[in-house]
Every structure is written in structure tokens, then in C-alpha cells.
Design goal:
The chain is globular. It has 14 helices and 20 strands. 35% of the residues lie in helices and 24% in strands. The longest helix has 19 residues, at 427-445. α2 packs parallel to α3 and α11 (359-371) crosses α14. A hairpin with a 7-residue loop joins β1 (44-48) and β2 (56-62). The protein has a six-stranded mixed β-sheet, with helices on both faces. Strands 10, 11, 13, 15 and 16 form a five-stranded antiparallel β-sheet that branches. Strands 8, 9, 17 and 18 form a four-stranded mixed β-sheet that branches.
Length: 446
């Protein structure tokens, strides 16, 4: 365990020292390091690129017989960081007080390091899959949409990355509730249906306020309504199952256990209890309960002395799996009923999911039972999305989960650090996660 932890820690420090802020990314050096390490351990490695400065790494360990393909997925690009806001340089990879510091420690060079360390350790020990194959896939460009990364790979080289089970980011956060220790497993992700709200008026000279009909002022009640509440619930299977389990009950794959009468009353009551017990957890779960809307940009007159005849508000809208444009439109129009506006969608990306009950979930549950006694996995939906979406779309039979288990840092500690200042990870958690990835490969492929 100590050797595995040390391997993951050293590798993470090296990865953090590559500045892969995206844009522009420039991930080649980091990918070449991973390819060198994996190749030396016995993996077949290839670098495939839409942009030569930004190659994707595919490392393969083949089995002796036909069987399932298990993929460990990660990305090595990161968001930006302001060194002035950090206690340690974001690209130092400093090891201080048992933590590795730096941009990407949690999102998600830490998971990449744990996955690769696990794979290298297995291969160096002489282990090979008895059946199927192990894939380690390290991609670029996740932080800005994956046009050069997972999307490009799955669309242009699907046979190179086809898999039956995939483990990615988005889960593994540990939290305690009512004395229970719970691990979130990301089984689903919301889609993106961003839109513009447009109000119309009549232009005029700004020195005479009543001369025109100010379109910007017509936007004010829309903003107020969007700030007051969210659209009505559209509860999917994953949050329904999660709420049932958090309430101490069980669920089937459809998560029907929470429906005991009026669904909205049941959910409201469950959320009220959760807000009292764990406000942060309630905050993270609330956006998964239906269509969510967040106004982010507004534009009106191009000149300060002209009353605008047109105002435009851009809204980030996230939609649960199974719902589409018409569902989003209906919920927004219902929310803004009584006001005049035009609605135009600018992006349309449907949500995605994998079954909550699967062989992969059984492996996670069994492993937690052995390595974190008393802990339970619970299904979760991400309000945002990860590269899992491209694999679920390309390979409908693939079961893809987000799971990077921690033992020491809880969700309450990690959530504020992702994309924030002083991002860091406990090295004991690196070792714990690496052990999971190592053991999972043996369980699935032996």
C-alpha cells in the first residue's frame, strides 16, 4: 500500500508541474511522461491527436482470452489559477503536511496519477488480465468541451477506446449523514440547454427617459423571477433513489422508494430534512431535481446614450437525462408566465446516464465493504457533465461511473477546492484510490 501511495504521489507531483491550463492546454509533455511510464511497465501505448501539441494517450494491457474491457479514464488539462490567491504555487506540486498542492490535484491529475500508478504496479508485478483487457485513457481538452479530447477520440477512433466498463471523475466523494458513511457514485449527468431571453422595446435618446420604450427595464421582472425560484421538479431515477437512500430506505433501479404520495411533497420534505442535517449536501443535490436556470450575461444598448430597443439575457440551463428542448422550454415558460419575452436556445446537449445497478456497482459495493467497513455507495447525478458522456453516447452498452474514492478528505473539504485556490489532496487518499483501481482491474479481468 505504501509503495502504491508513493508511486501515485510522485507521479501527481510531476503532472502538476506541467502547466496544462486550458486554453491553450499544451498537454503533450504530460502525456509523453505517462506514455513512457506505462510503456516501460509493459502497456501498449499510442498517442492520437487532432492537434499535435495535444495528444490523447491510450495504453492497453491485453488478456489471454476474450472478455470485458475495463477503461480507467482521466484528463490532464486544468482550469487556470491565480498564484496570488494560493498558499503554494499552483504548479509546484509541493508535498506539505501530507498533502500534494497544486492545480489539478483534485480535478483531475490526482485521479490520473492514481489510475496510472495502479496500472503500472499491476504490470510490473507480472499481472496480466486472464480475460479481456485493461485500458488506461488519458485525454486532453476536457475543460473546454473535449473537441480535441474524448469527443474526438470516440468519434474518430472508436475501436481504440471501446469499452464495457469505464471509471472516470465525478464521484467518490465521501460524506457522513445520520451516522452513516456514504460514497457518491456518479451514474448520470445533466444536459446543457442554454438559451437567450429577449425583450423588445423602442429606441430613444437617453436624455429623455420617457421618449422610448426601454427593453432593458422589461428584463428586470424576468431576472427577479429567475432569482426567486427554479422551475418545477422533474425528478429522475438517480436523485429519487438517492433521496430514498439518504432517508434510510432502499430502492430499485428505478428509484421508486421515495414516491409515497405526492412526489413534490415527498421531495420537499426530504430536502428540508437534508438542509437541516447537511446544508452543503442539500445545496449540491438541489440542482439535480429538475431543470435548473442560472442567468449569467445580459446585453442591451451598444451606446450609453441610447435607450435600448432590444435586451438579451443569456441563461445557463441544465436538464436531467431523458428530457429535451421542449421540456426545458415548457418549464421556463411556466416559470416566467405572465411576462413578455422571446426564448431562443443556443446549445442543445442531452443528459446521459448509466444503470444504477450493474456488475461495476457490485464491485464498488464489495470493495467498500472490505476497505471502508460500514460505508455504502449511493447513486448521484452531476449537475454538470464530464467526458463520460462521450463514451455513453458512443458505446450505449458501456457502464460508465464517476468514482475516485477518498478515505480522509470529505466532500465538505474537497468541494470548495475544485477550481478554487489552494487545491490539494491528502496523499493517503491517493493511495486509497490507487488501491481501488488496482483491485478493480483484478476483480473485473481475472
Amino acid at each position: 500500500m505504501a509503495d502504491l501511495e508513493d508511486e501515485a504521489t510522485e507521479l501527481l507531483q510531476r503532472l502538476i508541474r506541467f502547466d496544462t491550463v486550458n486554453p491553450p492546454g499544451q498537454e503533450r509533455a504530460a502525456q509523453e511522461l505517462l506514455a513512457q511510464r506505462l510503456g516501460a511497465a509493459g502497456f501498449e501505448c499510442e498517442l492520437l491527436a487532432a492537434d499535435e501539441a495535444r495528444p490523447n494517450l491510450i495504453a492497453r494491457l491485453r488478456g489471454e482470452e476474450e472478455g470485458p474491457t475495463l477503461a480507467l479514464l482521466g484528463h490532464v488539462d486544468t482550469v487556470l489559477a491565480d498564484p496570488a490567491a494560493w498558499s503554494h504555487d499552483p504548479w509546484s506540486g509541493d508535498l506539505v503536511d501530507g498533502f500534494v498542492w497544486g492545480r489539478g490535484a483534485l480535478d483531475m491529475k490526482g485521479q490520473v496519477a492514481a489510475e496510472v500508478a495502479a496500472a503500472i504496479t499491476l504490470a510490473k508485478e507480472g499481472w496480466r488480465p486472464a480475460r479481456g483487457e485493461l485500458l488506461v485513457i488519458s485525454v486532453v481538452d476536457e475543460e473546454t468541451g473535449s473537441a480535441c479530447g474524448a469527443q474526438w477520440l470516440t468519434e474518430n477512433h472508436p475501436d481504440r477506446v471501446r469499452c464495457d466498463m469505464l471509471v472516470n471523475e465525478g464521484g467518490g466523494n465521501v460524506f457522513e449523514l445520520d451516522g452513516r458513511r456514504l460514497y457518491g457514485v456518479c451514474c448520470a449527468e445533466k444536459g446543457v440547454f442554454r438559451f437567450r431571453l429577449i425583450t423588445m422595446g423602442v429606441a430613444g435618446h437617453a436624455s429623455i427617459p420617457q421618449m422610448g420604450d426601454n427593453a432593458l427595464l422589461k428584463m428586470a421582472p424576468l431576472l427577479q423571477r429567475l432569482g426567486e425560484r427554479q422551475p418545477a421538479l422533474d425528478l429522475g431515477a438517480e436523485p429519487r433513489a438517492l433521496l430514498a437512500m439518504l432517508d434510510g430506505g432502499g430502492c430499485d433501479d428505478g428509484g421508486q422508494a421515495v414516491r409515497t404520495g405526492s412526489e413534490e411533497r415527498d421531495v420537499d420534505a426530504a430536502m428540508a430534512r437534508l438542509r437541516e442535517a447537511d446544508p452543503l449536501l442539500a445545496l449540491l443535490i438541489a440542482p439535480t431535481l429538475g431543470v435548473s436556470v442560472t442567468p449569467t450575461r445580459i446585453r442591451a444598448s451598444d451606446k450609453i446614450n441610447v435607450i435600448p430597443a432590444r435586451a438579451e439575457l443569456q441563461v445557463d440551463c441544465r436538464v436531467p437525462p431523458g428530457l429535451g428542448e421542449e421540456d426545458a422550454r415548457a418549464r421556463v415558460e411556466e416559470l416566467l408566465e405572465g411576462h413578455d419575452f422571446e426564448l431562443e436556445f443556443s446549445e442543445r446537449v442531452v443528459g446521459n446516464r448509466s444503470p444504477m445497478q450493474s456488475e461495476l456497482m457490485d464491485h464498488i459495493r464489495d470493495w467498500l465493504g472490505e476497505n471502508a467497513p460500514g460505508a455504502e455507495p449511493v447513486p448521484m447525478m452531476l449537475p454538470g457533465f464530464t467526458d463520460s458522456r462521450w463514451f455513453r453516447e458512443a458505446f450505449p452498452e458501456c457502464v460508465a461511473y464517476g468514482f475516485f474514492p477518498h478515505l480522509h478528505m470529505t466532500m465538505h473539504e474537497t468541494a470548495p477546492l475544485i477550481h478554487g485556490a489552494d487545491e490539494r489532496i491528502d496523499v493517503r487518499d491517493l493511495g486509497f484510490a490507487a488501491r481501488f483501481f488496482r483491485d478493480l482491474a483484478k476483480r473485473v479481468l481475472s
